[in-house]
Design a protein that fits this description.
The chain is of the alpha/beta class. The protein folds into two domains: 181 residues, Rossmann fold, CATH 3.40.50.720; 161 residues, no CATH class. The strands form two sheets. A seven-stranded mixed β-sheet has the order 4-3-2-1-7-8-9, with helices on both faces. A two-stranded antiparallel ribbon has the order 5-6. α2 links the parallel β1 and β2. The longest helix is centred in the middle third of the chain and has 28 residues. The two termini are 34 Å apart.
Length: 360
């Protein structure tokens, strides 16, 4: 998600330190805490399960970072750091009057309706938590009544918006990247964790990837593997962002599509090509060549590609290389650049042998 945000800033030529942000999902969560610690913007409002914090000048970053490192909810925000017009409302509070004079029966009501208030207006909205379908076809009109409340939305939480709401926000000029693209890092991380457990014998896995006790330092191999996972996530995000961005350039082509459609099309293209490759007869040498590129270097160097080829289940190997080839091809050629000749040239670059059954 953060990589998508950075790529969006790069394309639009924006200075992150001047960006105002709304965030749902608090500093106690994985996604919310990392968003706080990795960002440099002015977070004007942040809400989670327990409270809503707002400061028009931007919530004190040092205080947000303190909560993120301690994994505490926003309800623990020190009110002494709030500036004029700022407030901290707990969900248990009642009969609330906000600085604009609006009245709310409870903190729960304010939390659940907060994104529809003027306090939630910002340059960027990053939903890192929240209820599914919070913004939907029935209420998105209310959200847009005074114009688009955000210039950019990068979804970390799944299903915060419905597709109808996303489409209307994009029509209103919002750069919106949906959850299926922006929240894909967890899937990549999990798959590479599974890979390590399949590639390493149990005792070796424990020695290289776990700490001996609560106070023990993590093994160096663990740290290197984590770096490799993060790099893979960021590289894939940059590639996917560019494919979606290029497909949706406004005014450059009558065939330009919305980002929601480009995200879906990208996933469909990768899945269809992945299925085609997985059903093909693959040369063993090609499989090893691709596997060496699809698996993080730190694991390849430790085990050797031949050992990995023997240890990993055949079905897993085929699925891994099918996805790697399919995704790399779509990242290079976009959602409308698929043809037999281009794919053949792509495969020639990967290897000069073992392409039997892959041309389509």
């Amino acid at each position: 998600m953060r990589t998508y945000v950075r790529e969006l800033y790069r394309e639009l030529g924006l200075d992150e330190t001047q960006i105002t942000k709304l965030q749902t999902g608090g500093p106690d969560g994985d996604l919310g805490s990392n968003e706080i610690l990795q960002s440099r913007d002015k977070t004007v409002a942040l809400l989670d399960a327990g409270a809503i914090a707002y400061d028009p000048r931007g919530l004190e970053r040092s205080e947000l970072e303190r909560l993120a490192r301690a994994r505490q909810q926003i309800s623990c925000f020190n009110r002494a750091h709030l500036g004029p017009g700022g407030f901290l409302v707990l969900v248990g509070d009642e009969n609330i009057v906000l600085p604009d004079g609006s009245r709310w029966r409870s903190g729960i009501e304010l939390r659940d309706r907060f994104v529809f208030t003027d306090f939630a207006r910002a340059d960027l909205f990053v939903p890192c938590g929240g209820r599914p379908a919070t913004v939907n076809a029935a209420n998105v009109g209310t959200l847009l009544a005074k114009g688009a409340p955000w210039k950019m939305v990068v979804e970390g939480a799944n299903l915060f918006f419905t597709d109808d709401a996303r489409r209307q926000l994009e029509t209103a000029g919002v750069h919106l990247f949906k959850d299926s693209s922006a929240n894909k890092g967890g899937v990549t991380s999990s798959s590479l964790e599974v890979l390590a457990s399949l590639a390493l014998p149990p005792q070796e896995h424990d020695r290289l990837l776990t700490a001996a006790g609560d106070e023990a330092d993590l093994p160096e191999f663990y740290s290197e593997y984590v770096k490799a996972i993060i790099q893979r996530i960021e590289d894939n995000c940059k590639s996917e962002f560019q494919v979606i961005w290029d497909a949706c350039k406004v005014g450059e082509s009558p065939s330009a599509m919305k980002k929601i459609d480009a995200s879906k099309k990208l996933s469909q293209e990768i899945t269809q090509l992945q299925d085609h490759i997985a059903a093909a007869e693959l040369d063993h040498e090609l499989v090893k060549e691709v596997l060496a590129q699809a698996i993080p270097d730190v694991l390849v160097k430790h085990c050797g590609i031949n050992v990995l080829y023997e240890r990993l289940p055949p079905a897993y190997v085929k699925a891994t290389i099918a996805f790697w080839l399919a995704s790399k091809y779509v990242y290079e050629h976009g959602v409308a650049g698929s043809n037999s000749f281009a794919f053949h040239r792509f495969m020639q670059r990967i290897s000069t042998q073992g392409t039997k059954g892959l041309e389509r």
